[in-house]
UniProtKB/TrEMBL annotation:
The lineage of its organism: Bacteria, Bacillati, Actinomycetota, Actinomycetes, Propionibacteriales. It comes from the Bacteria. Nucleoside triphosphate pyrophosphatase. May have a dual role in cell division arrest and in preventing the incorporation of modified nucleotides into cellular nucleic acids. InterPro entries: ITPase-like_fam, Maf-like. It comes from Naumannella cuiyingiana. Its cofactor is a divalent metal cation. Coiled coil: none annotated. This is Nucleoside triphosphate pyrophosphatase.
Amino acid sequence: MRLVLASASPARLATLRRAGIEPEVIVSGVDETGIDAPTVPGLVGALARLKADAVHERLAAQRGPGDDEPLLIIGCDSLLEFDGESHGKPGDPAAVIERWRRLRGNSGTLHTGHALTLDDPSGRFGPPGVRRRDAVASTIVHFADADDAEIAAYAATGEPEAVAGAFTLDGLGGPLISGIEGDPHAVVGIGLPLLRTELAALGVAWPAFS
């Protein structure tokens, strides 16, 4: 099976590798601006699906005659929901500091959308053709009551500028997270238990990748 991760996230790739999965990475390049949904889980789900569909369309067009190798594409997207708002990547240190002054001592929910597309022309994993699964993993994140100096020092590292919610669980932001309720992998960017369940629904057993 050809396995493709439709994401540029190093954290998602590292999480899969630590779990024994070595995917091919193809960045979707989709324009995420202007995409809307009534809820934050709905939005991350829509964005994940856009990424998976864009990569599938590209690869499907490259199939030659007799090419019936199963193709599995995984698209993901993450956003933090806090005070009824969605928060993606802050982009600069000033935005990181402003956001962390709101987050400290409080809790938010990190939503990660997962979109799976299985293109299986020969039906090795079930009915032949293209099948899709979509799911969202939501994890409550409790933020430490960090002081201004700690926030400024974290912002100065540059790490939180490029991650959803302006924090990491598995990096320099780890000491500033006082606890979580849910799947830690989903906070990093891809929920492994959820992925296993969705793969099973497509007829693909997790050991097929290890």
